[in-house]
Amino acid sequence: MPFDVNQVRLDFPALSVEANGHPLAYLDSAATTQKPVQVLDAVARYNEASHGNPHRGVHYLAVAATQAYEGARERVARFINASPQEVIFTRNATAALNLVAFSYGVANLRPGDEIVLCISEHHSNLVPWQQVARLTGATLKYLYVDEAYRLPWDEVRTKITSNTKITAIAHMSNVLGTIYPVAEIAAWAHRQGAVVVVDAAQSVPHLTVDVESLDADFLVFSGHKVYGPTGIGVLYGRAELLERMAPYQYGGDMIEYVEEQSSTFAPVPQKFEAGTPNVEGAVGLAAALDYVDGLGLESILRHEQELTVYALEELKKLPWVTIYGPQDLSERGPVISFGVEGCHPHDVATIMDSCGVAVRAGHHCAQPLMHYLKIPASSRASFGLYNTPAEVEALVDSIFKVRKWLGYGS
Ligand SMILES: Cc1ncc(COP(=O)(O)O)c(C=O)c1O
């Protein structure tokens, strides 16, 4: 069912902010999404009436907090089609990837083993693997996109081999918008005996992410990119892998018994959640997933695709704009990176900001991709469920202003 975007926008207080004297056109949802009142209220309600330290007390509020926290875990599990024991709360996607890299990776990699990544990985799914490769003697290999910003199957077939022990790949690139065929890659990688880590930070707000149909061994995402709070992220791990893994951090809440010289550890998922957890973040994330499900991911994606098509059509009319990403809608999400001839991306974003249009500029935490594309940086507009065609028009109008202000006729 399509939704009324103007009605939906009323749920997001931040969208009514005035930016530099203009109505805000918030086109930076790939960096972080704004939060609906439903999420803000759920967090406030928790803090007002249910806050305690979960798992540790028997009193009313400790029990209420435990129920809120474990209820949020069940909600997340349902959203990605996992079981609650397979959902570990982390600080964000980055922390979840570090957990996999340093717990699973360090214990399972040997010299000569290979870790295969895509060249478009976010640094969060790249730098931890570099460190793990250093520690273990494993080698990093990259899958390269073609000139249409798609991943040729030959790259997958020839690079993921029986030497590959880990394939870590984003479901959707935060720069190119490319949606990678994760299920097919996972099927191939599994045949070679590799474990598959999926970085779903960019796909979870837009696509149905089902860990079973993606055949993911591990999958991560962040709450703040799916209309939830900052400071909460998710690691999904296949139960039998999590059982075999050592804890990543040690301390309170993750133990079973502690003696003077040694300890035993709690079962999963608590084994991986040392210290007092971010209960309000988990509660807010659960409310965000309720909100997304309430609108329906299919309706959200359809709406965002309409905006993406509109933006791509308008940008393609400008001969001095280069788009870094696939043209075909079936292969991309609502993230559009672009260059404006003769204009540095930071100048582009700064001038657009003065028009109230919020876009991101820089290397987008994907420097190896920038080197591969032979560009220093790009500007990036990204859409969320609350964006409108009028904001696409504001985007295009502001790009014209950029060219004018920097001394070009148009
Ligand atoms: C594809 C991708 N992976 C991982 C991350 C890291 O997310 P966080 O900073 O929330 O840990 C991002 C953030 O932009 C991302 O786009």
Account of the 3D structure:
This protein is of the alpha/beta class. 48% of the residues are buried. 40% of the residues lie in helices and 17% in strands. It folds into 2 domains: 5-30 and 296-405, Alpha-Beta Complex (Aspartate Aminotransferase, domain 1); 40-293, Aspartate Aminotransferase, domain 2 (3-Layer(aba) Sandwich). The mean pLDDT is 97. Helix 11 (297-316) packs parallel to helix 14 (389-405). The strands form 5 sheets. The chain has a 7-stranded mixed beta sheet, sandwiched between helices. Strands 13-14-17-16 form a 4-stranded antiparallel beta sheet, with helices on one face. Strands 1-2 form a two-stranded antiparallel sheet. Pyridoxal-5'-phosphate binds at residues 92-94, 122, 124-125, 170, 174, 199, 201-202, 222.
